[in-house]
Write a structure and sequence with these properties.
The complex is a heterodimer. By secondary structure, chain A is mainly α. Chain A has ten helices and no strands. Chain A has one domain. Chain B is of the alpha/beta class. Helix content of chain B is 32%, strand content 28%. In chain B, strands 6-7-8-3-9 form a five-stranded parallel beta sheet, with helices on both faces. In chain B, strands 2-1-4-5 form a four-stranded antiparallel beta sheet, with helices on one face. In chain B, α3 (94-104) runs parallel beside α5 (134-148) and α4 packs antiparallel against α5 (134-148). Chain B is globular. The two termini of chain B are 30 Å apart. Classes of the chains: A mainly alpha, B alpha/beta. The A-B interface holds A 4, 6-9, 13-14, 16-18, 20-21, 24-25, 28-29, 84, 88-90, 92-100, 231-232 and B 51-55, 73-74, 76-79, 81, 83, 85-92, 96, 99-106, 128, 149-150.
Chain lengths: 232, 204
């Protein structure tokens, strides 16, 4: 029994190994990381040009456009979350490692957020300037986008795990994820609109934070179960 | 000599086809189990079932005397898996790949230079795996297996892509592992010659 315990590395080492490896992989292939970011920046900067330059129109459409662009950009990057692991056989190694699988799927989702979600949150103020958003609204937008992108990375990991064994699962992934992502979109965009109208925003922020916590506790287990099924 | 892995009354279907039923197998410490049979006879599926990647239709598996179902974490800490795919990242070099592995399971990284030397890989440490040949990538997978220090090795077609020296090296590694009291399950359709106690399961 003693040597069994010796063979067990700590939980944190497996978690950080996966996060570090995925970030290193993204670093070596920057195109995969930059694509969704460019998509987000392009869609949301093209809108003011098309809709019209008056401050009223921009204030009206801005929050919605930023949120829709963020949601689609997140979806764009989710498809490949487990794809390469599945193709090169690393998935078998993850499934057969002595680490608990939910811990490893949580690490995959965290790495995905750091690679795809966090840059999006950081770029969003630049986009907000083209919509002439005031500073307070930008702050609220960044907070809601942070909670929203974390939720989407976690929620998306469930969908990505379910569709990883299928050829061209992109459409199916969107169908699975979008209904569950609707609350995030509605509350996120609405909260930013309310901030722009100088209304109280705490209710919306609390809702997004609660949704984020729900995903944080449930998604790793659902993703782990889905991966075991997909990999049979 | 103690029983390490024991399978009783195993049955597996793929689609409507029954690959095997009422299959019994046992691996003791210091023993090699060879699973052979023609292509498509279910060698890989049996191996994946024993590892817990597939669920058997029927039957039960014991690990060190206990039912494996509640015991997977202890089992996996003592198992390394070598499939026909490399299981490493093509964009990372072999040190980065092996370093990742040591985060997942306790490995002694001080042994790394010796292992790389043994596998003939020590001049390839800076190259991403995609620029290595298929046989060299195979050797990386073997190096990972050696570093893991697990009691049970499960190998699916370990000789694929290896040159003659490489195939002899695999047989040598298995023989050494058995001598140290480890066990090994190999699924292969090729002949395998190893000094030591060998059992055989043939699938039709």
């Amino acid at each position: 029994m003693n040597d069994v315990i010796l063979n067990m590395p700590s939980l944190l080492s497996g978690f950080s190994a996966v996060v570090r490896r995925d970030i290193l992989l993204a670093w070596k292939r920057p195109g995969d990381m930059l694509n969704p970011l460019f998509f987000f920046a392009m869609v949301s900067t093209l809108f003011p040009l098309a809709v019209g330059p008056t401050a009223e129109q921009l204030a009206f459409s801005g929050p919605g456009v930023v949120w829709v662009a963020a949601l689609l950009a997140a979806l764009l990057s989710l498809n490949s979350l487990f794809m390469s692991d599945f193709e090169d056989g690393s998935m078998d190694q993850l499934l057969l490692s002595p680490q608990p699988l939910p811990m490893l799927t949580l690490a995959k989702a965290v790495a995905h957020w750091l690679i795809a979600g966090l840059p999006l949150v950081l770029v969003s103020p630049l986009v907000a300037i083209t919509f002439q958003m005031p500073a307070r609204t930008i702050g609220v937008m960044m907070v809601t986008l942070s909670f929203g992108t974390i939720s989407l990375s976690l929620l998306g990991s469930i969908g990505a795990a379910l569709t990883v064994g299928l050829n061209r699962g992109t459409a199916l992934l969107s169908l699975l994820i979008l209904p569950l992502a609707m609350p995030v979109l509605i509350f996120g965009a609405r909260t930013v609109s309310m901030a722009a109208a100088d209304d109280a925003v705490s209710a919306g922020v609390y809702f997004l934070a609660a949704y984020c916590m729900l995903m944080l506790t449930l998604a790793p287990f659902a993703t782990a179960a889905a991966l075991r099924i997909s990999n049979e | 000599m103690t029983e390490l892995l024991f399978g009783h009354d195993l049955c597996l279907f793929r689609g409507d086809r029954c690959l095997f039923r009422s299959l019994e197998l046992v691996v003791n410490t210091g023993e090699l189990l060879v699973i052979d049979g023609p292509n498509g006879s279910g060698k890989t599926s049996l191996l994946r079932g024993l590892a817990g990647l597939l669920e058997f239709e029927n039957g039960n598996v014991r690990w060190s005397g206990d039912a494996i179902d509640g015991n997977y974490q202890a089992f996996r800490a003592d198992l390394v898996w070598l499939s026909h795919r490399v299981g490493c990242k093509a964009d990372l070099n072999l040190v980065e790949n092996l370093h990742f592995e040591s985060g997942l399971r306790a490995t002694d990284e001080r042994r790394l230079p010796a292992v790389l030397d043994r596998m003939g890989l020590n001049r390839l440490t800076d190259l991403p795996l995609r620029s290595l040949s298929a046989g060299q990538q195979r050797r990386v997978a073997l190096a990972r297996m050696l570093l893991a220090e697990a009691r049970l090795w499960m190998m699916d077609e370990p000789f694929t892509n290896l040159d003659r020296a490489g195939q002899a090296l695999v047989e040598e590694l298995i023989a050494e592992h058995l001598e140290k009291g480890g066990s090994c399950i190999v699924a292969t359709h090729q002949a395998i010659e190893i000094q030591g106690r060998t059992r055989r399961v043939t699938l039709q």
